[in-house]
Amino acid sequence: RIFSSNKGFDYNMKTKEFLSKANVLVEGDRQKDYGDKLHNHSNIAKLWSAYLDIEITAHDVAILMALLKVARTKIGTRTKDTYVDMAGYSAIAGEIEFRGKNESKNS
Predict the structure, then answer these.
(1) pLDDT tens track for 13-69
(2) DSSP states of the chain as a string?
(3) Nearest CA among 81, 88, 92, 89 for reference residue 36
(4) In angstroms, rounded to a whole number, what is the distance separating the alpha carbons of residues 65 and 88?
(5) Which listed site, 21, 82, 83, 87, has its alpha carbon 20 to 30 Å from 74?
(6) Please, what sign has the CA dihedral across residues 84, 86, 89, 92?
(7) How far apart are the first and last CA of the chain?
(8) Could you tell me if 30 and 89 are in contact, meaning their C-beta atoms sit under 8 angstroms apart?
């Protein structure tokens, strides 16, 4: 699991708690472990592009990772960390897509 484990989960979590947990993980430990999100996802995109022989972007990587988490909800046990991970990857995709763009035009 990329972002989380079931340790410390409150099994009565609300939406804001899933989002808060995703934010803490994305901006905290994972940021320290893997560095800048755009740089990390760009690196993954280059590797996937070379392997697949098609262009993959950093944004594509984040979306595809979120879809991987969605796929896991169809098969196997649904865990809270899967939903936290989906929120995290979706937020990363948004950050990558809009980083450096004029927010007044895109909000």
Answers:
(1) 788 888 988 888 888 877 888 888 899 999 999 999 999 999 999 999 999 999 999
(2) --S--STT--TT--HHHHHHHHHHHHHTHHHHHH--HHHHHHHHHHHHHHHHTS---HHHHHHHHHHHHHHHHHSS---HHHHHHHHHHHHHHHHHHHTTS-HHHH-
(3) 92
(4) 10
(5) 21
(6) negative
(7) 31
(8) no
Token output for 14:
């609300």
Both tokens assigned to 23: 């934010």
- Token readout for 47 is 């590797």
Single-letter code of the amino acid located at 65? M
**Structure tokens given for 73:** 């909800």
Tokens (6 digits) for 3:
């972002």
